[in-house]
């Protein structure tokens, strides 16, 4: 019986120490995120993207994530569809977006990004407020302890051509 208890204790300690060594999204995410309101104009979204040299803006209502708008959304859903520049961003943004929590395991989120072919993922806190964005750049340049292969697998997964 004593041997079983010792083995169980070792398993618990091993599991706990593994959890302590896991890296969290909050360790490498970008925190200073420019975002936009659903009622802001398409023109304002384009101006912010130009000013900050970015290709995506989280759409937030009182810090709560309601969608994402990309430079591609502006080109395809706005310009090509003949939307007025003073139309609200809510008319062209993607309302259902993949997101992660700031304390999520980084390896699991990297796999989700690769599987869904996402270059950026908004990060929210327990109150569902936007607190950052995790990008491929963050993964490639800030992943502490990540092997070259882990980063390469994420980049490869995101870059693969999808066949519909």
TrEMBL record:
InterPro entries, alphabetized: CBS_dom, CBS_dom_sf, Diverse_CBS-Domain
Domain CBS: 29-87, 93-150
Record Gene3D superfamilies: CBS-domain
Keywords, comma-separated and alphabetical: CBS domain, Plasmid
UniProt superkingdom: Bacteria
Protein name: CBS domain containing protein
Native source species: Mycetohabitans rhizoxinica (strain DSM 19002 / CIP 109453 / HKI 454) (Paraburkholderia rhizoxinica)
């Amino acid at each position: 019986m004593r041997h079983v208890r010792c083995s169980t204790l070792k398993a618990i300690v091993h599991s706990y120490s593994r959890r302590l060594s896991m890296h969290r999204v909050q360790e490498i995410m970008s925190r200073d995120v420019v975002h936009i309101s659903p009622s802001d104009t398409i023109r304002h979204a384009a101006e912010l993207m130009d000013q900050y040299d970015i290709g995506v803006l989280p759409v937030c209502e009182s810090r709560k994530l309601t969608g994402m708008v990309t430079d591609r959304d502006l080109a395809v859903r706005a310009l090509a569809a003949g939307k007025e520049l003073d139309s609200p961003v809510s008319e062209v943004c993607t309302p259902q977006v993949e997101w992660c929590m700031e304390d999520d395991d980084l390896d699991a989120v990297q796999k989700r990004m690769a599987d869904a072919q996402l270059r950026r993922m908004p990060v929210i806190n327990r109150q569902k407020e936007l607190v950052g964005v995790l990008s491929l750049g963050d993964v490639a340049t800030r992943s502490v302890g990540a092997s070259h292969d882990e980063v390469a697998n994420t980049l490869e997964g995101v870059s693969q051509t999808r066949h519909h």
